[in-house]
Amino acid sequence: MPFKAYSYRDDAAVPKFDDTRPLIIFDGLCVLCSGGVQWMLDRDPVGRSQFAVIQDPLPKALYAHYGLDADAFDTFMVLRDGLPYTRWAGVMAAAETMPQPWRGLGHVGHIVPGAIGDRIYDWVQRNRFKWFGHRDACRRPSALEASRFLII
């Protein structure tokens, strides 16, 4: 379903936020997801993107705006240039926010047809807690990382 860029700006249910950098929304209880965010933070000291946990109000409002169930959380989301990218497209969009060589890998990943990429994503998503575990509380940023996280 196509969306108009920045359509959430007209939605009174979505709190205002700085959308000048890509926003990566992830599950703060998921060890795999939190580990992926830490990996990105370690490799992107410039801060090309920002992060938010789905358990916070802003991401929940964005998910509702796009017709996604934040409580089921069956996909993470990358919001880039005002447009949502989920599942396999979200993985590629997240990679494209990174410095090289990771950005290039994000572009190359588009070779994989979306239907196949989504199947791979769904398989990992369904098994992530079994394979990697989960936390009882959300991953929160350190003092050094705080400027990269939106907590609204």
Topology (elements, then pairings):
Elements: E1 23-26, H1 31-43, E2 50-53, H2 57-65, E3 77-80, E4 83-86, H3 87-96, H4 102-108, H5 114-132
Helix pairs in contact: 3-4
Overview of this structure, please?
The protein has about 150 residues and is of the alpha+beta class. The chain has one domain: Glutaredoxin, CATH 3.40.30. The protein has helices at about 30-45, 55-65, 85-95, 100-110, 115-130; strands at about 25, 50-55, 75-80, 85. α1 (about 30-45) links the parallel β1 and β2 (about 50-55). The radius of gyration is 15 Å and the shape is globular. It starts with about 20 loop residues before the first strand and ends in a 20-residue tail after the last helix. The model has no long low-confidence stretch (mean pLDDT about 90).
CATH architecture identity: 3-Layer(aba) Sandwich
Structural class by sheet pairing and helices: alpha+beta
Mean pLDDT value: 91
- Biggest sheet: strand arrangement: 2-1-3-4
Assembly level = single chain
| Estimated helix fraction | 25-40%
Give the N-terminus to C-terminus distance in angstroms: 27 Å
Relative strand content: 5-15%
CATH class, named: Alpha Beta
Unreliable spans = none
- Counted by DSSP, the helix tally is 5
